[in-house]
Amino acid sequence: MCITLLLATSLAFQQPSAAPLPPGISPALRAFVQSGPGYVPEGGIPESQSPTTSGYWALGAPVPGYTNLYNLELHNTGSGFVEKFLFSPAAQSTHPAPALVVFHRYSTSHFDAVFWTNFLNEAQQRNWHFIAPLSAFTTNFGCLEGQINTRAVLEYLRPLYSIDEQRVYGVGFSMGAGALATQAARQCDPSSLRFAAIVDHTGSVSLSDVYANSPGIVRTLLAQRFGGKPELFPFAYARCSVLDHLPSATAPANMSRNLTGTPTLLWMADHDPNGYLQDDTRALRDQLLSDGGAARMSIVPASIHSWNTLDDHAVCEWLWRQAPLPAHRPSGMALADADGAWFDFRIEQDQAGAFTPFRWETNPAANQLALLESENLKRVHVDVQELGLSYSGALLLDLAPADGTGDEVVLEGIPGANPPQTVQRNGSPSSYTYDPQLGTLTLPVAGSSPDHWEIQF
């Protein structure tokens, strides 16, 4: 399959690129990056500068000096900013190909991945798709606009190319590793492209800690991305981090719990000059292991903060050895920061701008689902068939909220030929709402105490 590229005519490129340009690159590539389609303004490209059309649309050009590598602009992402990204499609194959997504470090562009790593060559040699997103800004810090743009890139490429949806891999360094980790933690809707395994090279996984340990220019940029200081906007910082390090936090809201099912390789130099990033890398490993996650760490001897301390070949070998991403998880824990799909559950919050933690367990032998330790949860939608359970015989449902408020449950996907016959709560008949057209059964909020439901089909 080939990609159709249109020449950019509507954008004026007038300033040098924010990407560092290594010595020795060809004049054509230098001109391409500094003043042509490779140019990235420090503040991103506002969507208002782009023609308004419905749906995604892209333009771009081949990158001079590289084979099968294209620099693309994606418009109408929904973030308010155009997304630039590099893409090298896998060679044509009868089978879906894995995709390797490489996240750039602080104050560089998407070209960071080809100037300073060997991941493009690794991907091409392995017949993988290669994707290097800008994520909206050269200094994105995993902000929501960057996450929206990166997700849009994956969704744009998804129907055009044969991507193995069970083998989408992510690698990031420093700011890019933090952006990757939070992207993977928040992009957990089974209907979207999710990361099957990630590699975090000395990542800025706690943005409040980055703020506390950075010079004024970085603090200013963080304040621009997240509204102000972390102490004044703790939720904005925590939702785009995987570790919550705010000193005032009484109950840390670690998005890392969404990564417990994601194989994670943590990598760092033993004498990296950014000591706090070393501490955060170890803290993320410890948190993932504590939560039952699959985390490994590789520490190499070096005293620099650089892509060069990462073994690109070994990383790709490790990624390939991980089991394909399962379609569904029969048990796990999650932290939602907004209404939407989180694993196999569609969440509606009691209050926006706050977190909603919950945990779930299934017992297929008993046809039982337990939804536990929920907070700030108004309503949850779930099709239990996606969790390996069935709408046949007795379905058992246990609810145990942690905040003293009841949770409404909407069971979806019920076959029209098999409607509920009886519904009991704690051993007594209960009211309920069944919609045979939609195939839904709504169990009302019955109280704040733990409830045991039994539905006979």
Write the layout of secondary structure elements.
Blueprint: H1 27-35, E1 45-46, E2 57-62, E3 70-75, E4 81-88, E5 97-103, H2 112-115, H3 119-126, E6 129-133, H4 144-157, E7 163-173, H5 175-186, E8 197-201, H6 207-212, H7 216-226, H8 234-239, E9 264-269, H9 275-290, E10 295-300, H10 312-321, E11 332-336, E12 340-342, E13 345-349, E14 356-363, E15 368-372, E16 377-382, E17 394-400, E18 408-411, E19 422-425, E20 428-429, E21 433-435, E22 440-443, E23 451-456
Parallel strand pairs: 5-6, 5-7, 7-8, 8-9, 9-10, 15-17, 16-18
Antiparallel strand pairs: 1-4, 2-3, 3-4, 4-6, 11-14, 12-13, 13-16, 14-15, 17-23, 18-22, 19-20, 19-23, 21-22
Task: Please provide a written account of the structure.
The longest helix has 16 residues. The N terminus is likely disordered. The strands form three sheets. Strands 1, 2, 3, 4, 5, 6, 7, 8, 9 and 10 form a ten-stranded mixed sheet that branches. This protein has a seven-stranded mixed sheet with strand order 11-14-15-17-23-19-20, with no helix packed on it. Strands 12-13-16-18-22-21 form a six-stranded mixed sheet, with no helix packed on it. The chain has two domains: 295 residues, Rossmann fold; 125 residues. Helix content is 21%, strand content 27%. The protein is globular, with a radius of gyration of 23 Å. β2 and β3 form a beta hairpin. The chain is built from ten helices and 23 strands. With 457 residues, it is α/β, with parallel strands linked by helices.
